[in-house]
Design goal:
By secondary structure, this protein is of the alpha+beta class. Helix content is 57%, strand content 8%. It contains 24 helices and 11 strands. It has helices at residues 2-8, 11-21, 27-72, 87-92, 95-106, 126-135, 141-151, 161-179, 187-202, 209-226, 228-231, 236-248, 250-254, 264-297, 304-314, 319-334, 345-371, 373-386, 402-414, 448-451, 455-458, 479-482, 490-497, 526-543; strands at residues 109-113, 119-123, 207-208, 420-424, 430-431, 437-438, 443-447, 471-476, 500-504, 544-548, 572-577. A hairpin with a 5-residue loop joins strand 1 (109-113) and strand 2. Helix 17 packs across helix 19 (402-414) and helix 18 (373-386) crosses helix 23 (490-497). The protein starts with a helix and ends with a strand.
Length: 580
């Protein structure tokens, strides 16, 4: 009785049982008609559900688009006469020139349409820039995609600030606490390696400034991260070339909305990326083996007292302490990995990002020293004075060289690493204190070159190279400090003329100084890079004078474009050994 009731309550099952039990010839026709009607009903239901879902999604996107247009109408900017926005105008002139003209006509905050759904907002006022960089903590998704495609998933170079905040804070605190104290250990050894390579190249002819700057930056960063292991690594030259090749094409392949599996060039690029990862893992393993070897040979290396005695005896830091530092750096960069993160992604990203920016800064500084020999001579006399009373193998005390440090800062100001500083707010609208409301998802850019060449922030000579922008004059120093019998020649002559002492200003106090960014996503390696480059140049200029190769030309203004790679006019330079 119960089974009959259950069957009756399910019409579909009842129909199947009845047709199964019946032996009539209409069985197949009834069954096929019912199944066909049931299939049509299922398909119609699925289509209706899909239609409603797609309609809701499109309505939501359309609402967001109208919201974007409504909010963007309140931001000043040149009129948009095309469905493609200002893309046609940008294709005819560089984006930096267009932003310069727009800021001159519409004010410190202007908008440009890169397409019907892509809004770009440029900010030039230093105070508004500082506020924007504090509030807009995310980077463009394309940047994160390019790093992920080239080097794998990384917690240091992803777009969302929420995913990198903890790693950045940990790295910054450990760098400021430990790594910066030992930043001067590596450059002297790196200089020896660099100069050996330079002499080898000079034997074949003059040296290209851009090429040698890239090599100097690569050696400096590699020696800093991996120590002596990197300097002795036989594959360093191949690694440098491969790193630049992979990084150069990263933005191109990342620009595809869909991964181009059908392109042969993409698979060749993937093989290069795989080879780069294998080389990085090999270098990390070599560094770990060297660290374990020195730890085995020096079991008391962790004892501070023993190390202190050894350093007092030898006159420099022990090898084991250097390897401890290198192992510490690798642990900071590669530690606490999640399951989806590339093991060496942070290291490869750091090497590329560091080489690009540090190499550009070194190249610009070399060009400035060549075109301003009087500044180079003053820096040399400053190096001599700072090294007075030090041992032959002591590290240069760059904190006693304000002019050298000011020259590094001024080189970064006059020629930033890129024409635009890019940020975005992925989730929230951004309201500035001026009352401007910037919608979420808009590309926020700062025309760094325009800001750092503004007369209102840097004076009437903002367009000229002048390291004294970062120096303040103090009271006159006594003549006894200038007259030193151990200094002779051009250095003594320059010291006699410089009767005033200068102190270095904090460049970050000026909101218009942006070569290392600002705010939540500012470069956490700024102090480390500045001190390292200053130490590198102190060692170089103490032994060599940088001059322009006969017949080579320099240009006051570089040829720039709006991509991450800039085409700098690269003069031929020569390192002349000093006779001191």
């Amino acid at each position: 009785m119960k089974s009959c009731t259950t069957t009756a309550s399910n019409p579909f099952l009842s129909f199947l049982l009845q047709t199964w039990n019946s032996g009539s010839c209409d069985y197949s026709l009834e069954t096929s008609r019912f199944l066909r009607d049931y299939a049509v009903w299922e398909i119609n239901a699925f289509l209706w559900i899909s239609l409603i879902t797609i309609t809701c999604l499109l309505t939501h996107k359309l609402f967001k688009l109208f919201k974007l247009w409504t909010q963007a109408c309140k931001i000043p900017g040149p009129p948009c006469l095309s469905f493609y926005g200002h893309f046609n105008i940008i294709s005819k002139q560089s984006l930096t020139e267009l932003l310069s003209d727009s800021h001159g006509e519409y004010g410190s905050v202007v908008k440009l349409w890169l397409g019907p759904t892509q809004l770009l907002v440029s900010i030039k006022d230093p105070e508004l820039v500082k506020e924007m960089l504090l509030k807009a903590k995310d980077k463009l998704p394309l940047t994160g995609k390019a790093f992920r495609l080239a080097f794998g998933r990384s917690t240091l170079f992803t777009s969302s600030f929420d995913k990198v905040e903890k790693r950045r804070e940990s790295l910054a605190s450990k760098l400021n606490g430990r790594l910066l104290d030992g930043a001067n250990v590596i450059p002297t050894k790196a200089v020896d390696c660099i100069m050996a390579k330079l002499h080898q190249i000079m034997g074949k002819g003059s040296i290209d400034c851009k090429m040698v700057s890239q090599h100097m930056a690569f050696t400096f960063l590699g020696a800093t991260i991996f120590g002596d292991t990197f300097l002795a690594w036989s594959k360093a030259t191949i690694y440098e070339e491969l790193l630049m090749m992979v990084a150069k094409d990263a933005c191109f392949w990342a620009s595809y909305s869909v991964t181009p599996f059908w392109e042969r060039g993409f698979w060749r690029y993937q093989r290069l990326c795989t080879k780069l990862k294998c080389l990085t893992q090999d270098l990390v393993q070599q560094c770990s083996k060297s660290y374990m070897l020195y730890r085995y040979m020096d079991p008391v290396s962790h004892n501070e007292t023993a190390n202190a005695g050894m350093e007092a005896t030898v006159g420099s830091k022990s090898c084991s302490s250097i390897f401890l530092q290198d192992n510490f750096f690798l642990q900071v960069l590669n530690g606490h990995l999640n399951s989806r993160e590339e093991p060496c992604g942070n290291i490869m990203g750091m090497m590329f990002h560091g080489c690009l920016n540090t190499g550009g800064l070194i190249s610009n500084m070399l060009m400035r020293l060549v075109t301003h020999p009087e500044i180079q001579h003053k820096i040399y006399s400053e190096i001599i004075m700072a090294g007075k009373g030090s041992g032959e193998r002591d590290q240069p005390k760059v904190e006693k060289m304000p002019l050298l440090l000011a020259t590094v800062y001024e080189s970064a100001r006059v020629m930033p690493a890129g024409p635009l500083l890019q940020r975005c707010s992925l989730k929230h609208d951004l309201r500035l204190k001026s009352g401007v409301l910037i919608p979420a998802g808009a590309i926020l850019v700062v025309p760094v070159h325009l800001v750092q060449m503004d007369d209102s922030s840097w004076g009437n000579d903002a367009g000229k190279f002048n390291p004294y922008h970062f120096l303040s004059k103090t009271e006159k120093i006594s003549g006894s400090l200038n007259m030193d019998t151990s200094i002779a020649g051009p250095a003594k002559e320059l010291l006699d003329k410089s009767q005033s002492s200068f102190v270095l200003n904090d460049p970050n106090e000026n909101p218009a100084f942006l070569p290392f960014g600002s705010g939540a996503r500012a470069c956490i390696f700024q102090k480390f890079v500045i001190q390292g480059i200053a130490t590198l140049f102190a060692s170089l200029l103490e032994q060599h004078e940088v001059t322009l190769h006969p017949g080579s030309k320099t240009y006051a203004k570089p040829l720039t474009n709006d991509s991450i790679f800039q085409n700098f006019p690269s003069p031929e330079i020569v390192f002349v050994r000093r006779n001191n």
